[in-house]
Amino acid sequence: MSEPPIPVDRANSPESVGKHVTLRGWIYRTRTQGGLAFLVLRDSTGIMQVTVRKQSVGEEAFGRASAALIESAIEVEGEVASDARAPGGHEVRAQAVRIISPAEVFPIFSGQTEEFLLDKRHLSIRSRDIVAVLRVKAEVLRSARAFLASERVIEMTPPLLTGNAAEGGSEAFTLDYFGRPAFLSQTAQLYLEALIYPLERVYSITTSFRAEKSRTPRHVTEFTHLEAELAWAGMKENLDLQERLIEAICRDVADHCPAELSLLNVDPAELRSVKAPFDRIRYEEAIQQLQAKGFAVEFGSDLGTAEERALTLERTSPLFVTNYPEAIKAFYMLRSADDPRTVECDDLLGPQGYGEIIGGSCRETDVVRLRERLEKTGAALENYEWYLDLRRYGSVPHAGFGVGIERVVRWITRREHIRDTTPFPRTPSRVLP
Ligand code: 4AD
Ligand code: MG
Known about the structure:
Number of domains: 2
Bound molecules: 4-amino-1,4-dioxobutan-2-aminium adenosine-5'-monophosphate, magnesium ion
Shape: elongated
Strand content: 25-35%
CATH architecture of the largest domain: 2-Layer Sandwich
Helix content: 25-40%
Radius of gyration: 26 Å
CATH topology of the largest domain: BirA Bifunctional Protein, domain 2
Strand order of the largest sheet: 6-10-11-16-15-14-13-12
Number of helices: 15
CATH superfamily of the largest domain: Bira Bifunctional Protein, Domain 2
């Protein structure tokens, strides 16, 4: 009877030298020289060299092992030995190799186009780079949950099927809900606002959907949305929580993902240097800075990719831009007390040109004004009566924000395109695989 399999990272360590181990995984690379086959075995924890000698495993097993193609699933038994040339410094000298499932010729190899790799995404997600990014993403989510719990913000599960397209009807996916029109959620915000009355501090991590045709390196049509909503909060409390959340995420990724960051060529010291408080400028000041850089913008212009890039290119920490004009922001934002042209909102821009990673605001509490703003959007008012109710029964000042998790991961892992941060990216031209 063979021993239970152990993970590759445990086998590929000095403590395992001389031990008899069983490993299982997939063939990552393979090469045969006469009576000796070198297999590199991959499992979820890493890669390790396995040497298979004809005289140790027998002619038949050697024939099968050396003929097995990459991505074949195998199980190996043998002894761990030091070998400076092997990845990780150790190898397994096989005494037995079992082919669990032979692979056909793997269609993924280096030099293929991005489009081809996306067509074969179900296979190309085995790449070590993608896996490292997905592990960082998992740490981002774990860290965010731990931070919010420590701040006594409670996780909620709002619906994704909804009658409200709160971020703009033209960018909502519509669907037939038993004969009635409905939407895929663009934001959980309205539901979180309802939940602050019993719970005061709430958040959710849900999928948001946006039917925007923008083909940019930072837009996908389906993304992971972390949203928080806080009763009794104004701009200060809202921005403070956002920056401390981002600081905690960067520190945790630096502390817990050293191997992934090294594989991705990201310096953990850069992440550790992301410290609250972040600089804050008002939209109006941003417009002046952009004009000084030669941009043809004026009060009222929206800030696109190029503008956000110019504002943050030289920075190493994120930048808050606050108080945008009411006309270019969502209907639920509170009018600024000191400038009625603008609203109490913030966009948090990632440094080095990465652009918006968070959008937040104080919410309008006055039911009359809220209804007026809503009317201007052309939304079906009757579907928002429940939301207006929230202002009729004990309305309080409140604020919240939404973090685009893939955008944060793109910045932290320095990926060029947001699709590199999600296993099955959804874009206007892609809904398969
Ligand atoms: O700025 P947005 O549209 O704000 C809201 O939806 C608010 N209701 C959130 C809230 O206050 N509860 O979206 C929030 C964030 C953006 O800053 C961006 O990071 C991300 O969601 N995001 C996208 N990420 C990827 N692809 C897209 N198409 C995205 N649209 C927004
Ligand atoms: Mg936004």
